[in-house]
TrEMBL record:
The lineage of its organism: Bacteria, Bacillati, Actinomycetota, Actinomycetes, Mycobacteriales. It comes from the Bacteria. GO terms for biological process: negative regulation of DNA-templated transcription. Keywords: DNA-binding, Transcription, Transcription regulation. SUPFAM superfamilies: GAF domain-like (SSF55781), Winged helix' DNA-binding domain (SSF46785). It comes from Prescottella equi ATCC 33707. It holds the Pfam family IclR_C. The keyword Cell inner membrane does not apply. Residues 10-69 form the HTH iclR-type domain. This is IclR helix-turn-helix domain protein. Coiled coil: none annotated. The keyword Transcription applies.
């Protein structure tokens, strides 16, 4: 029978998880208390703490340790994403039932969109997206809706020209700047064969013009999709999701 090397990535992650889990029952713990609660040698516990303090996951207070701001921020962000998902899910099902198209929920994460949910029918396999997956924001309707609402400068998204996967993909900051200005004016974003030939999407940001918590989109086959007719339903879905969230509690916009 083989055992996992204590220095292997999986073993290290397991040990860090055990160490962090010790803070469930106490806000602050000393090195001795952490060593006793985890069962790890004092020297090993100290080495892990030094690394976790360095990256901001743990914060030191005198002889005691507590969860750092980075851990608190990640926890808050995860909770916020869950709230967006809960508010959007029934609206997404309604939008899918009304249109028969693939419906996405996503948030902006740096220059990418991060997909939180995907609901679809027969066409879903043709749309290159998955829950937890990413796409460059500048070449998706949902990403462009988020970029436009976040007021991010086009040059910071595309500092250099790029070759996209299709002839319709945006390849430089100048073209992206014009596209984002149009989206801000119309409050709707379009993607026609920009990520995949034969797939088009319509998207709208979820927010009030000042705060944006995500975006929703519908995608379908370019040859049969009436994008103009989808503008109103997509806008209404984004608005309904925002109202669901604001009717329950105070919101914090998702940082770009």
């Amino acid at each position: 029978m083989t055992t996992t090397d204590a220095s292997s990535p999986i073993a290290v992650i397991d040990r860090v998880a055990v160490l962090l889990d010790a803070f469930r029952e106490a806000e602050r713990l000393t090195l001795s208390e952490l060593s006793r609660r985890t069962g790890f040698p004092r020297s090993s516990t100290h080495r892990m703490l030094l690394q976790l303090v360095r990256i901001g996951w743990i914060r030191r207070h005198g002889h005691a340790y507590e969860l750092g701001m980075k851990m608190l921020e990640l926890g808050s962000l995860a909770q916020h994403h869950d709230r967006v998902h809960q508010a959007a899910l029934p609206v997404m099902h309604e939008l899918h039932n009304a249109t028969g198209l693939v419906v996405h929920l996503a948030v902006l994460d740096g220059p990418d969109v991060l997909y939180l949910e995907k609901i679809g029918g027969r066409f879903t396999l043709s749309v290159p997206s998955r829950v937890g997956g990413r796409q460059p924001a500048h070449r998706t309707a949902i990403g462009k809706a988020l970029l436009a609402s976040s007021r991010i400068d086009a040059e910071s998204v595309m500092p250099h020209p790029v070759v996209g996967p299709t002839p319709n993909s945006i390849g430089d900051a100048a073209r992206l700047r014009v596209e984002l200005a149009r989206i801000r004016e119309q409050s709707i974003a379009h993607d026609r064969d920009e990520t995949t030939v034969g797939v088009s999407c319509v998207a709208a940001a979820i927010g009030d013009g000042k705060n944006t918590v995500g975006a929703v989109s519908v995608c379908g086959p370019t040859k049969s999709m009436n994008s103009s007719a989808l503008v109103a339903p997509v806008r209404m879905a984004a608005l309904a999701t925002w109202r669901h969230m604001t009717s329950s509690r105070t919101l914090r916009p998702i940082p770009a």
